[in-house]
Amino acid sequence: MTQTLDRPGSDVESRVGAWVSSFQDALSARDVAAAVSLFADECYWRDLVSFTWNIATVEGRDEVADLLTTVLDRVDPANFAVDGEPTSADGVDEAWLTFETAAGRGTGHVRLKDGKAWTLLTTLDELKGYEENRRERRPFGTEHGANPARVTWKETREQEAEELGYTRQPEVVIIGGGQGGIALAARLRQLGVPAIVIERNERPGDSWRKRYKSLALHDPVWYDHLPYIPFPENWPVFAPKDKLGDWLEMYTRVMEINYWGSTAAESATFDEAEDRWTVTVQRDRGDGPEEVVLRPRQLVFAMGVSGKPNRPTFPGMETFRGEIQHSSEHAGPAGYEGKKIVVIGSNNSAFDICGAAWEVGADVTMVQRSSTHIIKSDTLMELGLGSLYSEQAVANGIDTRTADLVFASLPYRIMADFQRPTYDEAKVRDKEFYDKLREAGFALDFGDDDSGLFMKYLRRGSGYYIDVGAAQLVADGEVKLVNGQVQEFTETGVRLTDGTELEADLVVLATGYRSMITSVADIIGEEMAQRVGKVWGLGSDTTKDPGPWEGEQRNMWKPTQQRNLWFHGGNLHQSRHYSLYLALQLKARQEGLDTPVYKLQPSHHEE
Q1: Where is the FAD/NAD(P)-binding domain (predicted)?
Q2: CA–CA separation, 294 and 298 (whole Å)
Q3: Cβ(449)–Cβ(416) under 8 Å?
Q4: Which residues of 303-331 are buried (b: 16+ CB within 10 A; e: fewer)?
Q5: Nearest-angstrom CA–CA distance, 451 and 421
Q6: What Rg do the C-alpha atoms of the chain give, in angstroms?
Q7: Is the peptide bond before 236 cis (omega within 30 degrees of 0)?
Q8: Is the pTM of this model over 0.85?
Q9: CA-based nearest residue to 552, from 420, 459, 447, 451
């Protein structure tokens, strides 16, 4: 696409400046009609907490009017101003904004078409009076002068570890100690919100260490930084699982996170009158498990995108003489050199497992049950991520926060339109690769609407593979491929519905995971889980993401139908970015700020 950029100081500054000035004037005058008139007929306003105490998108002028009519007096937005130099390309003016509300300060982004707002992003950066102790507000770290009652940092941390959860209750309990729980706990620490992370594994990072041997990040380093401490400049582009595990463990210590490893959450009930949870956990500090009852006000589940392993059962499993593993249990192909391995599934884990098994000389067969989207890693890096998350982007002045906000500024309703050209170009660039995959019998797709990887991830969290080499093995026939559905297990292998029989010493069920709510229900109970509804998905009416349209990730990082219950997680990018907005919501409630939620999401249950 050819872009024509206006020069700084040209008409784009006048157009954007006039819009921002008119918008602020309308807001200050509480003139909803005047404010709405500044939006195009097709328009989208995405708000991350600042106006709505929610993560919500309104679409069209009528919904913009409803938002402003509902919240304008309370929010009291002020000082909207352009931050930096606006740009213009292909008839769209863009600008970064700063603004304030009664509660805090924020960042905005606007896209104008013909002088009217097409997209508007507003985000809450900090709460007034409760700013993080960073930069000029950083703690002093020591006490100068003589003091016989001096308490050292080490003594303070040891006292906190002894008291928190026992003689002093946390404000927040986070169940799940992967990157999501760790990132959120780091944010809360900087905001002065006492929190405990509950994790079944012994050490931070074990959720990565205990996966199959070949696992590594498929997302590049620039996309994966955690809050406050970016990866060093010599960090590998794609971090191996054990290296990432060590980083998470280091990060947890340096950021002073109260991390309870070897601890299992057994139950959680909410007392409406006291506005508190009762969370019962079994904690093992090295001398056997002890029951601990925690009484936080806020409960966060940070268990990734997925819940329980999706472990299908087939007739004859009990007669199979080999071994059956779900991908979550598979440690790698050691011991299966020269033996037959059947992998049921054709997404990320299936490909990784097949590739590692082929490398040790196993006879590997992949069973593809439904079509899969594949994008080469190099292609994704260059076409899909490079403009925002790459060394070149950094050289161009696009830091991680800016990249995150650019991505956040695209409403989900139209994000597919922005994604589709990337995958159209990938089809041309990698035509020979895709042709060879199809010739091998692989069922390939690019999403229901050809919008590719990110939309599949956002809509359903499955159905794709970022190729780092294993897809080429399938295309070349080095990893055998069969298409179909499993009918039953036999003593010696697997039989498909078309009669095909596959001999196996090991069958790996790379069949994915169920919704996060399935694991949560074991702790909060089925009734409360039903009240909350499905976690993840947009309601796009595409495969595995049935409507109605929500326009945001269902129940993620925002209030739910159960008061004081929250969900956090996703990939490293989402764990980093959205941890800020969830932390600010939790801090506001700790301090007793008025937090009326606009557009609380209804329950939804279809998978």
Answers
A1: 171-402
A2: 11
A3: yes
A4: bbbbbbbbbeebeeeeebebebbbbbebe
A5: 8
A6: 26
A7: no
A8: yes
A9: 459
